[in-house]
Amino acid sequence: MTIWRRSIQARVVISTLVLSAVVVSLVGWILLRQVTDGLVSSKTESAVAEASRGTIEAQGRLTAASGTNFDSSAQLALLVASIVSRGDVQGYDVVLIGPLAGSSEDLASGSGTRKSPGLETTSVPERLRQVVERDPGTSWTYTRVRYEPDTKLPSAPGIVAGSQIRLPADGGIYTLYYLFPMTQQEETLSLVRRALTTGGTLLLILVGGLTWLVTRQVVTPVRLARRVAERLAAGRLEERMHVRGEDDIARLGNSLNQMAASLQKQIRQLEELSRVQRRFVSDVSHELRTPLTTVRMAGDVLHDARGQFDPATARSAELLQKEIDRFEVLLTDLLEISRFDAGAAVLDLEDVNLVDVAQRVAESTTALAERRHTRVVVKASERPCLAEVDVRRVERIVRNLVTNAIDHADGSDVEIFVDSNEEATALAVRDHGVGLKPGESAMVFNRFWRADPARARTTGGTGLGLSISLEDANLHGGWLQAWGQPGEGAQFRVTLPRRAGDQIAKSPLPLVPIDASRGAS
Amino acid sequence: MTHGDPGNRGKVLVVDDDAALAEMLTIVLRNEGFGTFVCETGDQAMADFREYKPDLVLLDLMLPGKDGIDVCREIRAESGVPIVMLTAKNDTIDVVVGLESGADDYIVKPFKPKELVARIRARVRRFDEPGPESLTMGDLSIDVAGHTVTRGDEQILLTPLEFDLLVCLARKPWQVFTREVLLEQVWGYRHAADTRLVNVHVQRLRSKVEHDPENPQIVVTVRGVGYKAGSS
């Protein structure tokens, strides 16, 4: 079935073969019918003619001899012997039955059956006998000519023609039957049948072979084209088809090659654009960073000297210092985002225990958490939670999630869960603050998105933190997802594969926290 | 070109084409008691270096004319004076190329003045004369006071940073040093910053002291932990 579905060639060859077989059988059958009819009818004609002639001749001879010989049985024997010997030469058998009841006074003289030696009398069908006994003319029918077993002759289809003769010696009416076996015709027929079968088979093989050849000529280039298209799809853009001639297939090849060339050109252009973009980012980075460094140092000098200024100037120096910090973070985040956009971000992989990362982040955010009257608690699994990751990026993700949670915790504890399974390690940051409104869990990763624009920005986030975290997680082949309910708080879960880039089927931690799902149900 | 008063803490050559930044660096370093001299092009850098004889070079990676990497190699070819690179790029490849060309440390723009000063101090801090001390490490003998390393009669020239790294490992041959510990003890960082520094300098040290740097015997890697002195 697979071959039928997948190969045009097989389909065309098989259907052509089936159709041709039907047509050839039909033609053969009709031919055979016509030949049979012709053979049988010609044989019938000659047989009936022969039988009539024979009967007339026999009657004539009997009538001529009637004056001289009155011994009926001798006459009969003589008659039969002469017809049988003629039948031997001409290829037919003879049966003489009689005399008919009521046609002769002397029934004892020659009643019974006389016939060609070895012939079975049953070869003359009963129905014909009845017809012949009633009707004085010549009647005929088809029969099967059978011979006695000891002659070892095979039975054969044949024609039997019968008529009455009158024996002058006793005046009795006898019936005389001629049996013409059609052995020869049967042989001819079987010869014709054999010839038709052989011819038909050869024709079928020829048709099949031709179809196979023709479809091959079409299908082979199509298969080549498919292979080239597959390679193109796999990214080998330099693949081209060999084009020969100017037929439809060659034009298909040309079109495919043109398509490949145009694809290659476009991809080259995109690569070039991306290269230019990266170059631009790198240049902007340098060009912006140098003046920012100067401003930063000048700001620091002013900040350090603010004790000597009047209050307004001193406060200005403080604001300058703070905003330079913010500007610097924003610039760093923007450059990081544009690096992701340019596809220039690369992983620096090593095996890391995410529990350590969680502890480190919890420690480093203690001061911030205390200012917001909250605590950061690490709840790690007993299992080792190892993953092959870029530790700088993962720590950045976790720090982002934790500072975010502290910002929205409203004084409740921030929990960090860490767990692992065979293929992945997950870390979830849970807060019990205001939570997220429906639909916001997808929007939190949008650049510069803020849940509540009126909310105080105490930790000075840039609005890019979660976008960068999402890109970082994706770069590892991992997930970053958010869950939240108004009043229930929120949970952010990052799932990273054991080996960077592997597929993850299931995260070791639930996205919806257990306490929240229980509360909801 | 500003000739600064020779500071009591040391002399710093600032190689940077950005006039504003160079002036700002001068102000900050003078406040901290360093003497400074500013050079604005890479082509001029070597001449100024030879004339000013600084205790430390602060080198911008991107310069008009000869770029920072080339200047760094040239200085390193004739002197072991500490070099701190200023770079606008934090990408691994840029940092590693800079360190491999001979810089002892690097600092990414924009930086805080205090951080810069801390790094510079860490590099020029060796004004206190160490007591006479002699160490051996494999077939090397180290004279700490004389600041020399010899193998047999042959002296091996190391930069001060490479020397510090070697001495740090040699003083406690039984201990495995993590990259973070080495950063703190050799570079003087309080907080672990960047372990790439350690990797690059260990490679450079090996290329000078090992018989076969591909198969190190003197500075041995302990997989997953860090480095230690090879058992002799």
Please tell me about this protein's structure:
Chain A is an alpha+beta fold and 521 residues long. Chain A contains 14 helices and twelve strands. Helices cover 56% and strands 16% of the residues of chain A. In chain A, the strands form three sheets. In chain A, strands 2-1-5-4-3 form a five-stranded antiparallel sheet, with helices on both faces. In chain A, strands 7-9-10-12-11 form a five-stranded mixed sheet. In chain A, helix 6 packs parallel to helix 7, helix 8 packs parallel to helix 13 and helix 9 crosses helix 11. About 1% of the residues of chain A have low confidence. By secondary structure, chain B is an alpha/beta fold. Chain B has eight helices and twelve strands. In chain B, strand 3, helix 3 and strand 4 form a beta-alpha-beta unit. The longest helix of chain B is centred in the last third of the chain and has 14 residues. The N terminus of chain B is likely disordered.
In short:
With 521 residues, chain A is of the alpha+beta class.
Roughly what percent helix of chain A? Answer: 55-70%
As an assembly, this protein is heterodimer
Specify the CATH homologous superfamily of the largest domain in chain A. Answer: PAS domain
Sheet of most strands of chain A: 5 strands, antiparallel
The side-by-side strand order for the widest beta sheet of chain A comes to: 2-1-5-4-3
List the defining traits of the structure above.
heterodimer; A: 521 residues; alpha+beta; Beta-Lactamase; Helix Hairpins; Heat Shock Protein 90; 3 domains; 5-stranded antiparallel β-sheet; 5-stranded mixed β-sheet; 14 helices; B: 232 residues; alpha/beta; Rossmann fold; Arc Repressor Mutant, subunit A; 5-stranded parallel β-sheet; 4-stranded antiparallel β-sheet; 39% helix
